[in-house]
């Protein structure tokens, strides 16, 4: 039996209902506590966009370094992009949690991945990792960025908020 949930805005005449995707067998979909108003939906879209952009930058930078496409001077200049993007993602995650609308294992997974990302970017940006240690941190960064992007994608799907 297919499990469908509908989340509608506070004024159903203004915004059509959003249908959530089918849940895998044994999975529970945790919907927001209340129907999403236009304002809340826009706020969620904005936060998801911030997370998506920051995670994409972090993923691309770490991929650039781990695949050997960045020389040492280039790699050092790329580090300047790490911390600001990690902080933007961290701030968006805090705002998302503070809204207290979503209870989902995906949100927990996203939060855990972001915690690792922030710690790894701090270590790299502050020069605490060099040489093979730095490559290990970039690899850790890339794996967690991949996982966070996946969790974000699934969370968007659960909430019926399409990616731009």
Structure annotation, total helices: 4
Tell me the series of helices and strands, N- to C-terminal. Answer: EEHHHH
**Looking at the structure, what is the overall shape?**
elongated
Describe the main β-sheet briefly. 2 strands, antiparallel
Number of domains: 1
> Nearest-angstrom radius of gyration?
18 Å
Specify the structural class. mainly alpha
Proportion of helical residues: 55-70%
Strand content: under 5%
- The number of strands is 2
Poorly predicted sequence stretches spanning 5 or more consecutive residues: 1-33
What is the arithmetic mean of pLDDT?
Answer: 78
Through-space gap between termini: 31 Å
Strand order of the largest sheet: 1-2
Write up what this structure looks like.
The protein has 164 residues and is mainly alpha-helical. It has one domain. The chain has helices at residues 38-66, 72-98, 105-125, 132-159, and strands at 6-7, 18-19. It has a two-stranded antiparallel ribbon with strand order 1-2. Helix 1 packs antiparallel against helix 4 (132-159) and helix 2 (72-98) packs antiparallel against helix 3 (105-125). It is elongated, with a radius of gyration of 18 Å. The relative contact order is 0.17. Mean pLDDT is 78; it is low at 1-33.
């Amino acid at each position: 039996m297919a499990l469908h949930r509908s989340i509608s805005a506070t004024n159903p005449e203004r915004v059509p209902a959003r249908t959530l995707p089918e849940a895998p067998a044994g999975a529970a979909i945790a919907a927001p506590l209340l129907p999403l108003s236009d304002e809340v939906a826009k706020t969620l879209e904005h936060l998801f966009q911030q997370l998506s952009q920051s995670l994409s930058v972090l993923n691309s930078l770490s991929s650039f370094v781990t695949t050997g496409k960045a020389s040492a001077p280039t790699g050092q200049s790329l580090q300047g992009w790490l911390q600001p993007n990690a902080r933007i993602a961290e701030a968006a995650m805090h705002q998302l949690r503070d809204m207290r609308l979503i209870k989902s294992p995906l949100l927990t997974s996203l939060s855990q991945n972001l915690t690792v990302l922030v710690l790894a970017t701090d270590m790299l940006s502050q020069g605490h990792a060099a040489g093979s240690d730095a490559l290990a941190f970039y690899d850790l960064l890339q794996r967690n960025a991949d996982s966070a992007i996946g969790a974000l994608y699934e969370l968007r799907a659960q909430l019926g908020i399409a990616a731009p």
